[in-house]
Amino acid sequence: MGKIVALTGNDAAGTAMIQIRPDVVAAFPITPQTELMHKFAEAVADGDVDTEFVSVESEHSAMSAAIGASAAGARVMTATSANGFALMWEVVYIAASYRLPIVMTLVNRALSGPINIHCDHSDSMGGRDAGWIQIHSENSQEVYDNLIQGVKIAENRDVLLPVMVTSDGFILSHTLERMEILDNQGVQDFVGENHPQHTLLDVDHPVTFGPLDLPDYYFEHKRQQVLAMEQAKGAILEVGREFKKLSGRDYWLFEEYQMEGAERAIVALGSTAGTVKETVDALREKGEKVGLIKLRVFRPFPKEELIEALKGIKVLAVFDRSHSFGGFGGPLFSEIRSALYGSDLSLQVLNYIYGLGGRNISLKEIEWVYSDLKEVIETGKVRERINYLGVRG
Amino acid sequence: MSRLKGWKEIPIGGLILEAGNAEEYQTGTWRTYRPVWDEGKCIHCLFCWIYCPDSAIIVEGGKMKGIDLEHCKGCGICAQECPPKVKAIEMALESKLQSEKGE
Questions:
Q1: Does the distance separating the beta carbons of A99 and B12 come in below 8 Å?
Q2: Which end of chain A is less packed: N or C, by CB atoms within 10 Å?
Q3: Do B4 and A98 touch (CB under 8 A)?
Q4: Residue A146 and residue A236: Cα distance in Å, rounded?
Q5: Could you give the ipTM of this predicted complex?
Q6: Which of A1-5, B1-5, B87-91 has the lowest mean pLDDT?
Q7: CA A27 to chain CA centroid, nearest Å
Q8: Chain A contact present for B6, CB below 8 A
Q9: CB–CB of A217 and B6 under 8 A?
Q10: What span, in angstroms and rounded, lies between the C-alpha atoms of A153 and A133?
């Protein structure tokens, strides 16, 4: 089995990359991702991996190089944060549209301004419609595990989509944590070799990537992306089962924590789920019927499974670490409420925007949320649908 | 355009797996003016064939045989280059021809 180590989220992601040994990595430094690529570049410089490391002059070039290398048949990885991800924008869509299985760590950071380098999810949420699979991580262990699984999910023949694995900036990326890493050979055997069907370097079977796609065919290619996302769900589950055999750790579309018999629940992404678990444990000891759904896979969005998991819940709080300004609540809230509309469930759903620009969220605040939910059950009334948790009045 | 394929029939990601496929793209639909060729006037000098920026002039055995209307975009260069004394190609409004012939 694995080895117990103490690693930061960035070191965990770097370690996963070293063990995956991608053919090509193209990256540009940006806080809080920088250390991750330091770790990997060091392994390249030391000759521990034979990856072609491309030091580019911007994130736009990083993703462009990743696309070229992936189209050529290489297994490609990269990483970025916030404004770096924003600078990649147009090519992020192209990676998904060309169906290239690139795997990227996105170390979540607020998309300025005013300039801020700390964690929120405005960067990854901005990319939610780009056609990338999006997998969120609660801790460094999950960052590591999700990256290794991400390679197999992306390269699955029924999927062939890029995968983004998120890691909460600083909260995970710079915090030392006890975790377990697999041995190199185990990871190598698990990810296997990449055998893409069509590549630019296969001169016996020439292929054109990226031709002009006008109104007569563009829509058909978008429809294919819809199918790939639908099929990704199956691939994520299959890869999760295989990964359990290797690691002993369970991965699904989301994690249900103390949901049995729960009447009040929170849905959260990323590291905050860990803080919510602490609160749930404390409240459960007092006999309160509270639970948590930690959403792991945001794209493809597990609509049916969530509806099933929310049976029995009377009031739900959706935690959003980003906002959709002028919209009806945060992106996760909109998504979940939309999924519930038309289902057999008739629970109340409240939104809590929190943690923007790295603002900490405390156990006490999460406790307040559960008591807000209790009040809704008792009074049958919702005072505020969209709430701002931890902002000064 | 009944020959357009559905989303399940085409390679993913806009990949083109075969060379020489530009022929399959029916650019003739872009045309506003159609070249109308008068075989009786034609002297088979093949200026039209030389100047056509596509490859829409059909030539067999060294003789002009007609115009590939599936690819001709109606630029009118063939009509322009046809010698003034011959004038075997004239440009006519596509919409008018279509309504006359019920195409």
A1: yes
A2: C
A3: no
A4: 10
A5: 0.89
A6: B1-5
A7: 19
A8: yes
A9: no
A10: 9
State the smallest CA–CA distance between residue B8 and chain A in angstroms.
7
Any idea what the Cα angle at residue A104 is, between residues A100 and A107, rounded to 5°? 155
Q: Cis bond leading into A162, ω under 30°?
A: no
Domain end call among A232, A247, A262:
A247
Which residue in A158, A156, A168 sits closest to A109, CA to CA? A168
Q: Is A216 found in the same domain as A303?
A: no
Q: Residues A260, A232: one domain?
A: no
* Judgement on whether residues A150 and A279 belong to the same structural domain of the protein: no
Q: Assign A178 to helix, strand or coil.
A: strand
Among candidates B4, B6, B14 on the partner chain, residue whose Cβ is nearest the Cβ of A210 = B14
Q: How far is CA A290 from CA A88, A254, A320, A387, B103, in A?
A: 40, 17, 19, 19, 69
A55-76 pLDDT tens trace = 999 999 999 999 999 999 999 9
CATH code assigned at A169: 3.40.50.970
Nearest CA distance, A81 vs chain B (angstrom): 26
pLDDT in tens, A307-340: 999 999 999 999 999 999 999 999 999 999 999 9
Side chain identity, residue A147? L
Q: How confident is the model at residue B3 (pLDDT cuts 50, 70, 90)?
A: confident
DSSP 8-class letter at A99: T
- Say yes or no: A149 contacts chain B, CB-CB below 8 A: no
Helix A184-191 to helix A9-20 angle (10° resolution) is 70
Q: How far is CA A4 from CA A1, A271, A372, in A?
A: 10, 21, 40
What's the gap in Å between the CA of A207 and the closest CA on chain B? 5
The boundaries of the domain holding residue A326 are 254-389
- Single residue among A217, A247, A277 that ends a domain in this structure: A247
**What is the pLDDT averaged over residues B55-75?**
96
Q: Are A82 and A190 in the same domain?
A: yes
CA atoms within 13 A on the CB side of A187: 23
Chain B interface includes A215 (CB < 8 A): no
Neighbouring residues of A27: CB distance < 8 A, sequence distance ≥ 6: A37, A40, A53, A54, A55, A56, A62, A78, A79, A80
Can you tell me the distance from the alpha carbon of A350 to that of A374, in angstroms, rounded to the nearest whole number?
12
pTM recorded for the entire structure: 0.91
Contact B13 A223 (CB under 8 A): no
Calpha distance A360→A381 (Å, rounded): 29
Q: Helix, strand or coil for residue B37?
A: strand
* Residues A109, A32 share a domain: yes
Smallest CA-to-CA distance from A349 within A306, A316, A307 is with A316
Tokens of A334: 């909109």
